[in-house]
């Protein structure tokens, strides 16, 4: 799979333009999924660019709100900090303020990670909720219609941080992860097999501070312990990146990298 992975990236001028492209991508892909099934299941990450994207999706003045199949949507999280839902660091709180307070989603459509619980318990509950919602057998993994990621300047994605235990978890759907290097924090995250099993996986990445690490992730050499984003190799064979000019500044227009074929679109 590594050699056949197609990495397709687009470039916009700044974070605001990435957010607009991402809002359009959410609306398009969710609408396509809704045309063929009753439930559209998506998983989202935190961050400033997703926050701007969610704001656009919830804005009655923007076209994307009307294109989203809200009545069919099930919203999940890729990861969460182990803090209460009202905490400023909560990914759920950010999403609620930017999006959930503005759109017609029912409580049963919103599946948050309960960061206020003990990390292991929160992960176990999310694992079980996923299994029940997707109707999974013990050895099966869920298949999200759309899953959005970000990338940190250390090469982490979701809450899969360098040299942490969660990198090696391949049986559970969600797992707790202690991150000593970031405020000695506790996290809950979807595991790598769940992320890679999504039908459509895409990154939102902006900023000059991401340029060098993005080059290292895509062009190699492979070192997934140091660069966990290199673990993201979707079963679909396609990985999409929505970048700004600064983040993309060190990438080739096309070429072969450690993770697969790179192409600007």
Q: What are the main properties of this structure?
A:
single chain; 265 residues; alpha/beta; Rossmann fold; 3-stranded antiparallel sheet; 7 helices; globular
How many separate domains? Answer: 1
Order of helices and strands: EHEHHEEHEHEEEHEHEEE
DSSP summary: helix tally: 7
Q: How is the CATH topology named?
A: Rossmann fold
In percent terms, what proportion of residues is strand?
15-25%
The CATH C-level class name: Alpha Beta
Separation of termini? Answer: 21 Å
Parts with pLDDT < 50 across at least 5 consecutive residues: none
Structural class: alpha/beta
Number of strands: 12
Mean pLDDT comes to 96
Helix content: 25-40%
CATH architecture: 3-Layer(aba) Sandwich
Strand order of the largest sheet: 5-3-2-6-9-10-1-12-11
Rg, alpha carbons? 17 Å
Main sheet specs: 9 strands, mixed
Shape: globular
Task: Describe this structure as you would to a colleague.
The structure is a single chain. This protein is an alpha/beta fold. The chain has a single domain (2-264), classed as 3-Layer(aba) Sandwich (Rossmann fold), CATH 3.40.50. It has seven helices and twelve strands. The strands form two sheets. A nine-stranded mixed sheet has the order 5-3-2-6-9-10-1-12-11, covered by helices on one side. Helix 7 (211-219) links the parallel strand 9 (201-205) and strand 10 (238-244). Helix 1 (15-34) crosses helix 2. The longest helix is centred in the first third of the chain and has 20 residues, at 15-34. It is globular.
């Amino acid at each position: 799979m590594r050699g056949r992975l197609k990495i397709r990236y687009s470039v916009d001028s700044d974070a605001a333009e990435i957010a607009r492209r991402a809002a359009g991508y959410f609306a398009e892909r969710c609408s396509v999924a809704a045309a063929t099934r009753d439930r559209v299941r998506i998983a989202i990450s935190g961050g400033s660019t997703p926050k701007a994207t969610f704001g656009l999706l919830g804005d009655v003045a923007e076209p994307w709100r009307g294109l989203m199949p809200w009545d069919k949507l099930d919203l999940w999280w890729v990861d969460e900090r182990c803090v209460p839902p009202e905490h400023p660091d909560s990914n759920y709180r950010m999403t609620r303020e930017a999006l959930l307070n503005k759109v017609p989603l029912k409580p049963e459509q919103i599946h948050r990670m309960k960061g206020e619980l003990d990390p292991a318990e929160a992960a176990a509950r999310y694992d079980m909720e996923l299994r029940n919602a997707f109707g999974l057998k013990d050895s099966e993994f869920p298949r999200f219609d759309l899953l959005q990621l970000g990338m940190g300047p250390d090469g982490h994605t979701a809450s899969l941080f360098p040299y942490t235990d969660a990198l090696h978890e391949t049986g559970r759907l969600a797992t707790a992860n202690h991150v000593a290097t970031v405020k000695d924090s506790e996290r809950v995250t979807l595991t790598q097999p769940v992320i890679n099993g999504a039908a459509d996986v895409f990154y939102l990445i902006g900023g000059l501070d991401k340029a060098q690490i993005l080059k290292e992730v895509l062009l190699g050499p492979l070192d997934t312990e140091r660069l966990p984003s290199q673990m993201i190799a979707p079963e679909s064979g396609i990985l999409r990146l929505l970048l700004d000019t600064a983040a993309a500044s060190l990438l080739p227009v096309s070429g072969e990298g450690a993770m697969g074929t790179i192409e600007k679109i």
